[in-house]
Amino acid sequence: MAISLIAAILIFSFAPELLEKISSIVELSFDFENLPEPYTTSFFSYIFLNNSGHFWNPIRMLVWIPFLGTLLVAFEILINSGLIGIIAVITGVNNGIGYPLFGLVPHGIIEIPAFILQLSSVILWQVTITEAIVAKLKGKTHDTSKMKLGMRDVLIFAVTSIVLLFIAAIIETYITPYLLGL
């Protein structure tokens, strides 16, 4: 994720014309005008539900499907990292380097580990379920204590991720806008 973010920053720093093209695409892709106002519970809900959507958003719950899910979450993290890099460069060029730093670092320090835990819970789920399916297909008995332990760990990772995303959303809703002077 960090590599993707750094690569985007470097590429767009050295190719400003590409930055302008991507900037117009990003503006068309995201409806920034209809975002809820900072410092509101609507903004908090938007941030929190968007970031934790893999756990209850029906479309994004495809990540829990064995074999497919890990690729979807990893791809989403890669895409989000690139977009964050693009937005960091755009805001840095327009407002100075402090703006993306104050806008990303306070909640990002908590949010990035939360996303990693989210990915870890999905991967562990995939491994646990796949082992049970393969054992069943081979006609072998599956170690239920191992499966229970795996599912317990999935739950611990998922709950920890949700708690961290909740904290990050609070910071992004109430502290980040203050640091940015909004």
Please report the number of helical segments. Answer: 6
H-E order: HHHHHH
Give helix % range.
Answer: over 70%
Structural class: mainly alpha
Topology:
Elements (H helix, E strand, L loop, with lengths): L1 H13 L1 H14 L11 H11 L16 H28 L2 H40 L6 H37 L2
Helix pairs in contact: 1-4, 2-4, 3-6, 4-5, 5-6
In short:
The chain has helices at 2-14, 16-29, 41-51, 68-95, 98-137, 144-180.
Description:
The structure is a single chain. The chain is an all-alpha fold. It has one domain (2-180). It is 79% helix and 0% strand. α3 packs antiparallel against α6 (144-180) and α4 packs antiparallel against α5. The mean pLDDT is 81.
Overview features:
182 residues; mainly alpha; 6 helices
